[in-house]
Amino acid sequence: MTIVDFVRLIWKHIVLLLLVPILLGSLVIVLTMDPSYTYSSETILYTGLATGSSIDMEKKFSTSATNAAFDNLINIIKSRDTKEEVAVRLFALHIMLPEANPKYISKELYDELKLKVPENIYEYIETGNNKPVNTGDTYVVKNPLPPEINRYNYEKTVQNLLKLMRSSTDNFMYEVFNFDENKHYSRKAVSDIKAQRINSSDLIKLSYTVNDPGICQQTLAIYNSVCIVNYKNIKENRSDAVVKYFLKELENAKLNLKEAENRLLEFNKSSNIINYYEQSKAVAVVKEDMQVNYKRIKAELAGLQAGKRKFEEKLKIQEVIQEKNNVILDKKKLLGNLNFKIALAQAEIESSNKDIDLKKITDLKKQSIQLTNAIKEDVDELYTYQNSIDGLPISQVLPGWMNNEVEAEKMKAQIRVIEGQNNDFQEVYAEYAPAGANMKRLEREIDVAERGYLSILHSLSLAKLKLQDSELSSDLKTVDPPFFPLKPNPTKRAILIIAAAFLGGILTLGLIFVMEYFDDSLRNSVKGTKETGFESLGMIPKILLDSRGINLPFIQKRLREIITQKIIHYFGIQKINQKPKTIIVFSTQKLEGKTVVAGNLAKTLKQEGKKVLYLNYDQKQKPLKPKKKSPILTKMLGYPDPRIDVDNEFLAPASTYLEASEYGVYKINSKFYDVENYTDILAQNNLVAKGHLDFVIIELPAIIYHNYPSELITNADLNILVCRSNRTWSKADKAAIHALKESCDSKIKIIINGVRLNEIESLLGDLPKKRNKARKKLKSMFKFQFLAKSEI
To answer: What span, in angstroms and rounded, lies between the C-alpha atoms of 694 and 747?
Structure first.
């Protein structure tokens, strides 16, 4: 589709495209004659969740944690409990008002509420009590109240109504909150309050829109107060529960520590222990000294006993000394021999400068050293014998032996005393050993209890710090209280009207495009050739009563000339020189206009000087009757007059412009289906051709509804299929033409009849019509022919 086609399509339906939006816009205007006004207000809460201060100096703020905190807060704001309390508080505020107050509720809505509330609800309203409210109560919500409502009575009434609503599902308050969706106290109404974080700040904005300014402001004020209290309770109760837990655990740890210390004290009393570690250390030192003394005495006693044995062996010592001297002399001789061998070996090394077995010299030196050491030990031992009691004269042996005996008996007595003390120490150790283990166990229990107590004490300090931090962070503040809306919100009436008109125009235009896109009719010669598969000879326009200034006679004449020119050109290409040339005009459906086409074809050929014979079958044709009136709806929608100009000469019967010798009517009977050429038709119907003919045009009835002589069509020089432009090429058409395509496909051409005038431009270009300069320029612009001229 070109831009010109698009503009033509729009212009064709311009009235409809304008009428539908106007009608829809008018309908919206009528439906919104009495709009319901709404009022909006908003409030802003400061949270401090993103940039607020904290008692915990090591606390770190992260984006994810901050976003989670804001999500938690917004979910608390949108929770069912919050909505329930807000709805009940608003209801209690309104029901406790002695009369309508525009600041809280309009008179119309107040009267409506009074009529709807049953009498039993007033039993839950607290009255006649001026008791002050305890500001420490967590349920107290500081929403603004009129002076005629007592705060205590209001809070008690709220609690009473909340308890009633949550008690069952068949009470008035439950129904108001869950089912009364058209009022201001339902869950749906309260859910219209929108909560959102303002960009990346610490602020949350609550906004509300409703049909009463007082209710709008008071609902937001109540919502503010309830959210602040609920969020504070949740944050503080969570941390307070942790503090209480650690306080309880601290008491238990303190009690366990005290019990462990008491057990240690009782153990010390029962075991007579003042300081176990000092006492046990003192006992160990004394016992150690006693053991050292015991071992020393035992050693001395052993020495005395050994000396005694030496005295007793005195008589044999001299013989031992003599033998030892002989041994020393023998070893000295061996040492002299070894030294001689070593000196001899060293002399040989110095004289001959030859390598000697070093290992042999090393072995000799080792033997010399060992023998020297042995002689030294024997000399020392001999010296010991000669300078000890073993070497004393016998006259000195007896006094020494006596003294030794006395001293030995003394030491034995000391040993018996020390052994008695050792038994006493064993008894003390028997008491102190288990006491030490018990002492360790008790001290371990005290240490564990003390460390547990200190750990819980530390956790309690952290929990208290967390509690204080939670109290600081949960302290929401109203930085922008809800305002009383003085003016209603602008209605969307204008937007709705424009949207309705725009939507109507778009839908209408879309529907037109869809109809145009899915239009499967033959429409023009190009589409006809594509659908049927046959080459087109041309198009015949629809003969309208009102051609809207177009020179229709010229167009009709020129299209007929184009068709005849193509026919003659076809015969020239096919080199068909015999005369007359037979042209069959037929259609698949009825009322395709083939009679008009065949007659005008004969008329045009006659005007060109050709001898023509037009044979038409005998049919009872009813004369065309003009429509008396143009359809009103068509006129209203701006569409062209669809009536046919029955008086147009193009639709005149062939008998009016052809002579009797040029026009004949044949009958369709059983013999007709056997004809092979036009002469057979003339013979069967007693018709005579006058002179030498150039063309014989034979019209056949619709081949879907009538049989036809196959030989006649096969032997014909040209077969012209006439089709209406406003119909589709159906499967029945394809089936009817299938046999003909097999026998004479190349000789079948089509003519599209009743084509819309704008389709003719594909053949004739711009149609002959009076146009002003602006329209010509506009059309050239749509064709992008900015430099095109109508003349040289």
So the answer is: 18
Q: Token pair 């329209």 is at which residue? A: 775
Interval 444-487: pLDDT, tens: 888 888 888 888 888 777 777 666 655 555 567 888 889 899 88
pLDDT at position 723, please? Answer: 94
Average pLDDT over residues 391-413: 58
CA–CA gap between residue 398 and residue 321 (Å, rounded): 21
DSSP 3-state assignment of 516?
helix
700/273 Cα distance (integer angstroms): 143
What CA–CA distance (Å, rounded) separates 222 from 176? Answer: 18
DSSP state letters, 154-219: HHHHHHHHHHHHHH-SSSHHHHHHHT-TTSSSSHHHHHT-EEEE-TTSSEEEEEEEES-HHHHHHH
Calculate mean pLDDT across residues 785-791: 54
Q: Which of 19-28, 105-114, 571-580, 672-681 has the weakest average pLDDT? A: 571-580
Residue 177 has pLDDT above 60, yes or no: yes
pTM of the predicted model over 0.70: no
Beta pairing, strands 39-46 & 203-210: antiparallel
Contact 720, 605 (CB under 8 A): no
HEC assignment per residue over 641-694: CCCECCCCHHHCCHHHCCCHHHEEEECCCCCHHHCCCHHHHHHHCCCCCCCCCC
DSSP H helix total and E strand total for the chain: 23, 11
The predicted-structure confidence for 404-440, as pLDDT tens digits, reads as follows: 655 666 666 667 766 666 666 666 655 666 666 677 7
Indicate the helix (H) or strand (E) that contains 459: helix 394-473
Helices (H), 313-393: 317-352, 358-386
Instruction: Say whether 477 sits in a helix, a strand or coil.
Output: strand
678-695, pLDDT tens digit by residue?
999 999 988 888 888 899
> Is it true that the peptide bond before 553 is cis, omega within 30 degrees of 0?
no
How many angstroms separate the Cα of 708 from the Cα of each of 678, 704, 713, 733, 749? 13, 10, 8, 15, 18
Query: Could you give the angle at which helices 493-517 and 14-31 cross, rounded to 10 degrees?
Result: 150
Comparing CA positions, the residue from 512, 508, 492 lying closest to residue 24 is 508
